[in-house]
Amino acid sequence: MRWAVILAGGSGTRFWPLSTPENPKQLLTLAGATSTAEETIDRLTGLVPRERILVVTGAQLAGPLEQRLKLPASNLLVEPRAASTAPALIWATIEAQRRDSDAEVLSLHADWAIGDAVAFRRTAETALSTARQYDRLVTVGVVPSRPETGYGYIVPGPALGDGARMVARFSEKPDAATALDLMAAGALWNSGLFAWTAARLLNEAEQHTPEVAPKLPLLRSGNVQQFFQEVTPISIDVGLLERSGSVAVVSGAFAWDDIGTWQALTRVRPKDPNGNIVVGPAFMHKAEDCIVWSERDTVVLSGVQDLIVVQANGRILVMPAEHAAHMKQLLDALPAEIRDVGS
Questions:
Q1: Which of 45, 130, 294, 334 could form a disulfide bond with 280, CB atoms 3.0-4.6 angstroms apart?
Q2: Residue 73 contacts by C-beta under 8 Å, 6 or more apart in sequence?
């Protein structure tokens, strides 16, 4: 049967000061009226039943996610410590297989914005059927709309059939010129939407992921705590997909965004006639291409362009839009008493 695994961890840094470790971006209404985590669950309607949706998260988010997503408590898999995506997905896949020996797994993240849910489900169907029919690990590549330097790319190889192709190689976060070359060559964004049978993933992990493989008996025996204490953190992309020779790619023709920075809101939220995005009380006077997010106080902008202004959790952030990608450097520079905000 089909299962879905949603990765819903997060440290709450990318959308400071609005996001916090207790209220990271997957719990925020960044792209619409509900949180991206709730939108993720809704997007699976008709594809995977709720009782077969597993969510991997940390202890501080398990309660809020259980309340919002209305899933059985046993479907929230709480990591004893964060160890990146390979240990998380391997654990969740073993758990799906424990409940269903023939489990087929769709893996996705809780913090995406998807422009066409119908096209998303159609592509996910294709990925799952490809994983089953060709016994491959399958990644969904999204057709690029711009030379994005913050995403990984997939270069498709020989055709498998039914629109699926083998993966020739991965290219991680290229510069702008290389990204244009990759787009011209037909490369796809690596969306992080994956599909596999539980049996194939675990077989490939045992062969290609030495950071995890020796610890698999701990998971199989139910000793999750010790597994996470001893396992080496590594991503599923680096730890397995880039090493395995059994990876296929299918193309997804839908708008996809991982909402990685404040500036990403320009791609997922409607703009006013001057290109501004405004959430909360604000007055815009001769302001263009700005982002304003205010939880409480009225923000007034006059005669400015390309600014990000955020009022949340007792902090006010003002920065040029082009600096949004450097949030980590800003937070590293801030004194703890300013940086650490409550939810």
A1: 294
A2: 66
Closest listed residue to residue 229, CA positions, set 79, 8, 5: 79
Express each pLDDT in 102-123 by its tens digit. Answer: 999 999 999 999 999 999 999 9
Nearest CA-CA partner of 236 in 40, 53, 88: 88
Q: Of 311, 83, 323, 122, which is closest to residue 211 (Cα–Cα)?
A: 83
Residue 29 to residue 31: CA distance in whole angstroms: 6
Amino acid at site 341: V
pLDDT of 342 over the 80 cut? no
Q: What residues have CB less than 8 Å from 101, skipping those under 6 apart?
A: none
The one-letter code for the residue type at 114 is I
138 burial level (CB within 10 Å; 0-12, 13-18, 19+)? buried
- Tokens representing residue 273 in the block: 């006639």
**Which residue has 């969904």 as its token pair?**
140
Alpha-carbon distance of 214 to 331, in angstroms, equals 37
Cis upstream peptide for 17 (omega within 30°): yes
Identity at 45, one-letter amino acid code: T
- The closest alpha carbon to 171, from 160, 183, 161, belongs to 183
For 39-56, the pLDDT digits (tens) are 999 999 999 999 999 999
Q: Say whether pLDDT at 296 is over 80.
A: yes
Whether 265 contacts 291, CB under 8 Å: yes
Distance of alpha carbon 169 from alpha carbon 154, whole angstroms: 6
Q: pLDDT tens, 301-317?
A: 999 999 999 999 999 99
What's the pTM?
Answer: 0.93
